[in-house]
Amino acid sequence: xxxxxxxxxxxxxxxxxxxxxxxxxxxxxxxxxxxxxxxxxxxxxxxxxxxxxxxxxxxxxxxxxxxxxxxxxxxxxxxxxxxxxxxxxxxxxxxxxxxxxxxxxxxxxxxxxxxxxxxxxxxxxxxxxxxxxxxxxxxxxxxxxxxxxxxxxxxxxxxxxxxxxxxxxxxxxxxxxxxxxxxxxxxxxxxxxxxxxxxxxxxxxxxxxxxxxxxxxxxxxxxxxxxxxxxxxxxxxxxxxxxxxxxxxxxxxxxxxxxxxxxxxxxxxxxxxxxxxxxxxxxxxxxxxxxxxxxxxxxxxxxxxxxxxxxxxxxxxxxxxxxxxxxxxxxxxxxxx
Length: 337
Hints:
Layout: E1 11-18, E2 32-39, E3 50-54, H1 74-84, E4 91-95, E5 108-109, E6 113-114, H2 115-131, E7 139-144, H3 146-157, E8 164-168, H4 174-177, H5 181-190, H6 196-206, H7 213-228, H8 251-258, H9 262-269, E9 278-284, H10 291-305, E10 310-314, H11 325-336
Parallel strand pairs: 3-4, 3-7, 7-8, 8-9, 9-10
Antiparallel strand pairs: 1-2, 2-4, 5-6
Helix pairs in contact: 3-9, 5-7
């Protein structure tokens, strides 16, 4: 809800993208994708920087333009920050990258689809052509949780494409993040005779009635398996990196996970981050997924490498921390103008 009804309101329009790079994806995701686009009041988008919002697991870009009780949706937040002068005007694109496995890590996967390519080769060019915004040196991205992971990994892999990034509570430090998730997933799958296919078929049927929070966490683990270590001989490309009976790490499978940990990628791609105009990382000091420890490691490694960045911890956990965008969005927008 608008805190001040006198704040000038930007506009939100919708683009539709018929993706080529998602054609034939293994899990059968729809290839026509919605992109909501925010343009600030008094502007048509021309000549403004572009930010891309990568939404966390279970969400898609349009969820951030929905009305929000007891707070602001993203356009309302942007209206307030821009009107106050805290933030330079920007166009913000909110692409729908959600999948039937519950979310997205925004990288290319043989099972999940070419989501890295979708963003850089299709979504961003469409928005920039349509509104004459962004361009080299004037585009950035931000996100929280899985979206924060996506922002960090894109910054690491493509600093020539993105000029700024904000990672809120993003996945990193995989050994701590998944330490408790794998046993929980195994207990759930055991109820269907250790069959991932049967568990998912039951889950998809359950969505017609009620989805349990515990099931969402199991779904998330399965989605990560299809993302980081896809097996195209398995149902939906999913195989777990642990033994089903004793939950022991299978080294060659876990290695496929670990190579996508930002703490691994920074060792080979960290120098590229020096090209960015702004890099922001934060995490709650009570994060229930243990992500604060990975965030601290990343901060320390970036300091050692001499990569300029802003790192902040705040007294909160992983949930309902959109208010942290009041810190990151002005930093990105002001750096990109």
